[in-house]
TrEMBL record:
Coiled-coil region(s): none
Catalytic class of the enzyme: ligase
Source species: Cryomyces minteri
InterPro entries in the cross-refs: aa-tRNA-synt_IIb (IPR002314), aa-tRNA-synth_II (IPR006195), aa-tRNA-synth_II/BPL/LPL (IPR045864), Anticodon-bd (IPR004154), Anticodon-bd_dom_sf (IPR036621), Thr-tRNA-ligase_IIa (IPR002320), ThrRS_core (IPR033728)
Full protein name: threonine--tRNA ligase
Domain Aminoacyl-transfer RNA synthetases class-II family profile, residue spans: 50-351
Length: 501
């Protein structure tokens, strides 16, 4: 049997021969790694502990770093809107049972210019698209402005049935890396292809795969738009998926399972139990832009609406309003659900760049000189200054906005070193750093690299950046233990966390 302190191991998308027994459970691992907890006072709303918040924020920061490459600009939108907005979007009619409604003290009427109302009904947002439509509509738009790409990490709320709530995979409060692209009909293929490339890059970075791409097409009965519009849109999605097939990613069609407002592509992953989860999604939407009367000005509007080009000068001299197409996209889907999959995928052995426990410093004893040196090592390895930088007027200066302190832990207790090492291994730190009296004199540290996904990258950095020779490295399968200068250890960690391996 497995002890409670020894988390299980797992692989995401395992084959029958590699499926762990028993499979990892992110709820158990979440407790073992002090990532999150839940409370009956807020069912379905996880409380992230510092370790979990660190991983969550690293995921968000990773995506934010990619946004400029893919043309997204981040926005911030309200968590609560009046009932009238949800009536406009259609959510109140089709989604009200899954929403949280709130009665508020009205500051204005339901409609602009109406009398002030009391006890008005509001809804916590289950998705960001209506707010992004308000942003698009806040300015006059030209075809030259498109595509416009908004990204949003706002908290979302969905009133899931209490019996279905489970850890991080089924929650009531969650965050999506939500994005909406407002584009011309002729730009659909380009935007879908770019989004699929974005998905592939992210999932390759986390070694998540193979995943399934599923295209859901026009429903038989209930849909908006013309069959011709659907056929054109589905044709562009199929073309984008064929490009993915050339890169080795397989896709399939789920006939008639598209949303009533447009076709969609879902990305499906399997967890360590073999259960499938929809993570990323890409959806075309013809309806919402119409509901919000969104438009942009374009020449030859009749051709523009069909995504066609004309060279007829008379037609091009006439401009008119055209309704944009919205591409809904989420790369990770729910960050909470994606994090649950990663917890099980890595089973506590996180790559260093994402790890909430990249290193721990252990003292051989509790001698004051050793503990003081250990604190200095911790400060250097974490990447922060020992004391705040001061201006010429002796005032503390701020850290640069992009600075993130590496969460290096320390144990200077009088317990035996063997016990402290065993505990650190059970907690699955990436590195165990030991310091004693000889290290204080020599300004060195004893580093032991634990089993982790980025071991090969770590060895490469030690050889190429730090200058460790091949003779100093262990043979395959042996633990890596090295004596490094304190500055070398700091340089090594700072280089390692730059690598997504």
């Amino acid at each position: 049997t497995r002890s409670k302190s020894q988390p299980p191991s797992a692989n995401l998308n395992p084959t029958a021969s590699t499926l762990p027994n028993p499979p990892a459970d992110h709820r158990e691992l979440g407790i073992a790694q002090q990532l999150f907890t839940t409370s009956p006072y807020s069912p379905g709303s996880p409380l992230f502990q510092p370790n979990g918040a660190y991983v969550f924020n690293k995921l968000a920061s990773f995506l934010r770093a990619q946004y400029p490459t893919y043309g997204f600009r981040e926005v911030i939108t309200p968590n609560i809107y009046k009932k009238s907005l949800w009536e406009t979007s259609g959510h109140w009619e089709n989604y009200a049972d899954d929403m949280f409604s709130v009665t508020g003290r009205g500051a204005s009427g339901q409609k602009e210019g109406a009398e002030i109302g009391e006890d008005e009904e509001f809804g916590l947002k289950p998705m960001n698209c209506p707010g992004h439509c308000l942003l698009f509509a806040s300015e006059k738009r030209s075809y030259r402005d498109l595509p416009i790409r908004f990204a949003d990490f706002s908290a979302l709320h969905r009133n899931e049935v209490s019996g279905s709530l489970s850890g991080l995979t089924r929650v009531r409060r969650f965050h999506q890396d939500d994005g909406h692209i407002f584009c011309r009909p002729s730009q659909i293929l380009q935007e879908i292809s770019s989004t699929l490339q974005f998905v592939g890059m992210v999932y390759d970075t986390f070694s998540l795969g193979p995943y399934k791409l599923v295209l859901s097409t026009r429903p038989k009965d209930h849909y908006i738009g013309t069959p011709e519009e659907w056929d054109r849109a589905e044709g562009q999605l199929k073309q984008a998926l064929e490009e993915q097939a050339l890169a080795g990613r397989q896709w399939s069609i789920n006939e008639g399972d598209g949303a009533f407002y447009g076709p969609k592509i879902d990305i499906i992953l399997k967890d360590s139990d073999g259960k499938e989860h929809q993570t990323a999604t890409i959806q075309l939407d013809f309806q919402l832009p119409q509901r919000f009367n969104l438009e942009y000005q374009a020449p030859a509007p009749e051709y523009e609406r069909r995504g066609e080009i004309t060279t007829d000068k008379a037609l091009l001299d006439t401009s008119g309003p055209v309704t944009p197409v919205i591409v809904h996209r989420a790369i990770l889907g729910s960050l909470e659900r994606f994090m649950a999959l990663l917890v099980e995928h890595y089973a506590g052995r996180w790559p260093c760049w994402l790890s909430p426990r990249p290193a721990i410093i252990l003292t051989v004893n509790d001698d004051p000189a050793v503990t003081a040196y250990a604190e200095a090592v911790r400060t250097e390895l974490s990447g922060r200054a020992q004391t705040p930088q001061l201006s010429r007027r002796n005032k503390a200066l701020p850290q640069q906005p992009g600075f993130t302190e590496l969460p290096v832990d320390i144990d200077t207790s009088a317990r035996s070193l063997g016990r402290k090492v065993r505990e650190a291994k059970e907690k699955r730190y990436n590195h165990i750093v030991v310091v004693g009296a000889k290290d204080v004199e020599a300004d060195t540290v004893q580093v032991e690299l634990q089993a982790q996904p980025d071991r090969e990258v770590a060895l490469s950095i030690l050889k190429q950046v730090i200058g460790v020779t091949k003779d100093q490295l262990p043979t395959e399968g042996k633990p890596l233990k090295l004596e490094l200068k304190r500055t070398q250890a700091s340089q090594y960690l700072q280089e390692l966390i730059k690598n997504f391996a």
